[in-house]
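Weekend entry, working from home. Most of the wet-lab plans are on hold until the incubator is repaired, so I used the time to fold the two sequences that have been sitting in the queue since the last round of cloning. Logging both here for the record. First:
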Amino acid sequence: MTRSAALWHRTRTVVGGVTAGVVLLVLGAVAGRADVAVLGVAPLLAGVWDWRRRPTEPVEVTVARPHGSAGELTAVAEVVTTGPAAVLTVRHGGRAVVQALVRTDGRREVPVVVRTVRTGPQDVAVVDAQGVGPGGASVSEPTDPTSREVLVLPDTRPLRELPLPPRLRGLTGAHESRRPGEGGGLRDVHPLAPGDRLRRIDWRVTARRAPDLHELYVRREHALAEAVAVLVVDSRDDVGPDPLTWRGETAPRSQDVTSLDLARVAAASVAEHLVGAGDRVGLDDLGVHRRPLPPGGGRRQLDRIRHALALTRPEGEPSLRLRPPQLPSGAIVYVFSTFLDDQAAHVAAQWRRGGHRVVGVDVLPTLHDRHLGPREELALQIVRIAREDRLAALADADVEVVTWRDAPEVALAGLARRGRRRAGAAR
């Protein structure tokens, strides 16, 4: 909450009216014209009366109850003043969004809706108010700008299919494994053995192969299992589409989606699809050394992942990892990074050499480079060449790379179908 000093000023309209009234009174007295003097009495009395009725209490404004997700945020701005009205100014991203005169009657709650494409911790809006006295004869000092920080959770986008690890785990799940069990497709027809259930007997095959019933045949199925996935977000970079902001001197514009915004949405979308299929998902961050979120399933796990993603952001100077984070055996790894340096690519290649299936998700936004000068264009071209070489080296290391900004659901579905064609891969 913030409040202004208990100082109210006359408006220019009242000052002009009082001045005109005094001038008319003086002219009427000097010229001996009573009718002219009478014309000055009304504005003079009105100005004095309105000034005597001016409020003396300070104006208070608060921002409360922010909520929402990426796309639209809603909060409530509460204005408290003894005046009949107030001028409310709402700013977002360093620019004025709206300025409105609202009737207060002492207290007024005004809903504030802000549309944003950014995720993570951010201010809903910066609000200040200026009280207006009766008749518009006085205005207060503007309040200090006030705001309320809100954690914007990333939204998700629907995905078709996702690649799975080469080895599935567990005794239940939504994916068909290679080992015998129940729930999957037909594996084979086999003579009845200890442990087989009688309801699995295939009487047609038994009648054809053993008419005298000296041997019974049962239908065996593939078991259903679950996949384990670990989402690894590279929070060391949070760059916007304008390369001039990459040096850190200027922040990206609030209306531009940054690479970390894309990484949050991409990771949340993958997590939602996998959790919906009954798989277990974990989360780790390459930018900080903290305990990762272990793999788990269910709606609560998805909520934990979205909340942790929203809190993910660059924290000081990133430290160099001597070894990649430990992963569960047989897990598939999704690495969300801009790949502007070698560390994320190096860690992904190490995981692939360790036997994990690794999918690199490129989250660099579409660049705006038309306004760059010759030196900036040359520097960006060097960065692009190094980045393309880095992605080519990942492909040589058998790390599958997709670009999130270009129809990721199609590219991920293609990787899922290609994985099913591999020898020994999970179906």
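Second, folded right after the first finished:
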Amino acid sequence: MPPIGQAFMPALCGVALMLACHAAAQAGAPQVPAMAERVAACVACHGAQGRAGPDGYYPRIAGKPEGYLYNQLRHFRDGQRRYPPMNYLLTNLSDDYLRQIARHFAQQHPPGATAAAGNTSAAVLERGRLLATQGAPERRLPACAACHGQALSGLQPAIPGLLGLPRDYISAQLGAWRNGARRAHAPDCMADVAQALTPDEIHAVSTWLALQPSDAPLAVASTAALPIRCGSVGATP
């Protein structure tokens, strides 16, 4: 059973979503809402400045590449990515409005809290580290760092960083790609990677990533070829 505070998070986010949707409905009026009003619903779930929610599920969006954030907002708005509160919130927002929100959070760089290791064994953490930094060459499974940058802080213009993300969120997204609930442009490289991982490996790499400090260098541009074909990289940001 979730803690009492966590149990109230959906309700709090719901209130914020309604307020933000009301502001969004007024977007065509002469007075455009201030940025603080536009992102009120975002920070209610994703934390101040988008640093990550307190419940271990809502991800950090601060400092992500602008192109990545914009694409995700579009996908939620257009139904390509499914999460009802996000789909509802973004339904009537224009591309320009979404770009402004994406640009705002891309420019935020608050320090992130590092998760506690708890009772995770050293063997599990080492397994996660090897998967994240070296992959499994014998299985042609690329490392997370091969696509998301050696510092795991992302690559411009549209590959997200993996730092500052709660373990449960990382695990849930890998699971969603593994079972087809989340999809990207073909060839869907993340689906291929997730399907090659075992549940134990997903747990290991999610736990290790969540324990890494989130104040890494900013996402940088890279012209290096990715180790596998990835359709979303070529998508228009």
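Plan for Monday: verify the second prediction. The radius of gyration is 18 Å.
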